[in-house]
Amino acid sequence: MRTVVSKNGCATSLFGWSCGQWIEWHDSALEEAKNMAMNPSISSIAFEGETTPARVFRKRCITWHEQPALRKKEKGLWTSISWKNYYQQVQAIGLALHQWGLKRRDVVCILAENRPEWLFADMAAQCMGLISNGIYPTSSPAQVQYILQNSDTRILFVENQEQLEKVLAVRSQCPHLQKIIVMEREGLRDLSNPNIVFFDDFLKFGQGLMPSQTLIFENAIDQSKPEDIAFLVYTSGTTGSPKGAMITNRNVVFQLSLAHEYLDVEVGDQSISFLPLSHIAERMASVFNPLAVGLIVHFPENSQTVFNDMREVSPHVVFAPPRFWEKMYSQVDLFMRDAIAPARWIYQYSSRLHDSKPSIVQSFMQWLCFRNIRLFLGLHRIKTALTGAAPVPPDLIRWFGRCGIELREAYGMTETTGFCTATPQGGVRLGWAGIRASDTELSIGQDKEILIRGGHVFAGYWKMPEQTALALDAQGWLHTGDCGEISSDGYLAIQDRIKDILITSGGKNITPSHIENLLKFSPYITDAVIIGDGQKYITALVMIDQEHVSRYAQEKQIPYTNFLSLTQAPAIHFLIQSEIEKINPSLARVEQIKDFRIIGELLTAEDEELTPTMKLKRKVIAQKYASLIQSMYENK
Prior knowledge:
The chain is built from 21 helices and 27 strands. The chain is globular, with a radius of gyration of 26 Å. Among the domains are: 1-42, no CATH class; 501-631, GMP Synthetase, Chain A, domain 3 (2-Layer Sandwich), CATH 3.30.300. The chain has a seven-stranded mixed beta sheet with strand order 9-8-7-5-6-10-11, with helices on both faces. A hairpin with a 5-residue loop joins strand 23 (502-503) and strand 24 (509-510).
């Protein structure tokens, strides 16, 4: 730890310890370092000499001290939080939790949108040896109850009145829950409940403990071990109740090394946090990757301002699922439809030139067109653009390539603490999710199942030993449930979830995600579910894109009164039919879509058909829309 010398000659830390506190901490740290040197097997995985994320966090806060770590936009203005202030907030919260009687391995939960306080609470729990956990802010009261019960949560941070009401509705069913900390006072100023505390009061309480109890906080960090559970991540629940994946300190530190290796960024480069922090991808991107590479994490004003705020931030790195990148493509498509005729012509002409060798004049036109598109999207400074967490349409990668953005695919899951394969720079290969990450083992098992082994593989499912045994075998291989193949030069191709592969009545195996990806590249289709298991032919349930289809209806003067009537309009049915006819020639005859139906509801993350990460639950869809599906096979 870096020190300064006080007037009396005693070394004191930058965090304001007394001389005695500093000497006591230094002696214990020195003794531990000696033990580590004599027993290197204690921890074989380290990042810059540190074996837990809490220790890496402390080290970074010392090194980067006054540099900005986080920025939050409120009322149109960006406010910066330095690494020093970040550490002080985390320390205050950690000491307050300790004073409330929490012990190591107790669970602290966070139910909020992305904001700095989410990170403060998360890191405070980990520094104190607690287990942190996040709940999607779109979760229903029943979903909140399940996670609070299953995780044995003792302390819960909630964002506002809306989230508090969800918790209070199920509070009696959560016996372990002791205290609730509310981040925003709006609508709750008259609240009087000894078990509900406002965040600012809780923070002041912790700050009051700092002068005398700082050593407790530092010792807790020192006591953290690689094998300790750092946090839980509940899976999205596409196949049943969510399972709490136990992510260890060792898992996180392993991923820090991968982030340092694969992210082409520098200290002070910028990112933006907009995907749910309850998801492993955003948790790593916004909480931990900055510890590895020094990113400044920006928090948008709200979920509705993400694209506008992204233009202001102009991030250097963005990781997002294909749905986000598809939305960006759709934004440009909408914009170009309203553009003046010359601009539309330049865009179309420049797109055609991408794979040819144009003249100097043509190259200038292409540069001018796509440079403005990058500016429009806020991606003109992008260094690393990554996608994953769902199948990626090849045409999407091609389009961003035309724009001068190398959209690189990665593969991973909750159980691998993030990515385990990644596409190297300059190595984009359509239909492939990159090569294995450093110190990662890949294998193909029975039924072409992808198997993974490495320091990023999780410790198992919380309180679910039977499910853990199904996922992890005796040799330490994680059975992913995905089927795929590995090329001769090490690239991994993801074909589909094994459970999702369809077998037609003729015995043909169909991978639905491949067909669904082709459909989703249409600006008029948000999502689709391919049907055909045990049937003679393939059909589809289609979710239309409200924004694009509504605009199309207005342009064509198609009358409608609401979303349902829009989906039922014959002209819209013809529009989707034409989109399907565009992709059918690229499919094998057995894969071609013979019929379809449009889902007449505008689905959101709150609906049972979708997970909080907007993945369709195939079984729920099949059950709810059984009559629609049946109508596509009757009398045929």
